[in-house]
Design a protein that fits this description.
- This protein is an all-beta fold.
- It is built from no helices and 11 strands.
- Strands 2, 4, 5, 6, 9, 10 and 11 form a 7-stranded mixed beta sheet that branches. Strands 1-3-8-7 form a 4-stranded antiparallel beta sheet, with no helix packed on it.
- β7 and β8 form a beta hairpin.
- The radius of gyration is 14 Å and the shape is globular.
Length: about 130
């Protein structure tokens, strides 16, 4: 059974930094064709894609976070990370990690491209 557990969320002032972690059990991030994504859901809004990293370490990110957020992974620890710098109040939301390795045509930013999801960790950025 695959379990993803996020941690590292919290409250921070604008301009600050946080690093989110997503630890996996029952699944190896080094598995062939694995894609690991971060999504967030701002209050009162739909969930949106933030960033994706693949098994080879290639990363993609949304324009809204480009240059500020970085996805990375540690295969030895089987943990995914999201380093968030220069945080803004509009970055507030519940952050989710997700993983998938099905042979899909991907644009990386759609929820259905990810089969397994964590429960989320809250990030609150105050001005």
């Amino acid at each position: 059974q695959v379990q993803l557990v996020e941690s590292g969320g919290g409250s921070v002032q604008a301009g600050g930094s946080l690093r989110l972690s997503c630890a996996a059990s029952g699944y190896s991030y080094s598995t062939y064709r694995t894609y690991m994504g971060w999504f967030r859901q701002p209050p009162g809004k739909e969930r949106e894609w933030v960033a994706t990293i693949d098994a080879n370490g290639n990363t993609r990110s949304a324009d809204s976070v480009k240059g500020r957020f970085t996805a990375s992974k540690d295969n030895a620890k089987n943990t995914l990370y999201l380093q968030m710098n220069s945080l803004k109040p509009e970055d507030t939301g519940m952050y989710y990690c997700a993983v998938d390795n099905r042979p899909l045509f991907r644009t990386y930013d759609r929820e259905y491209e990810y089969k397994y999801w964590g429960q989320g960790t809250q990030v609150t950025v105050s001005s």
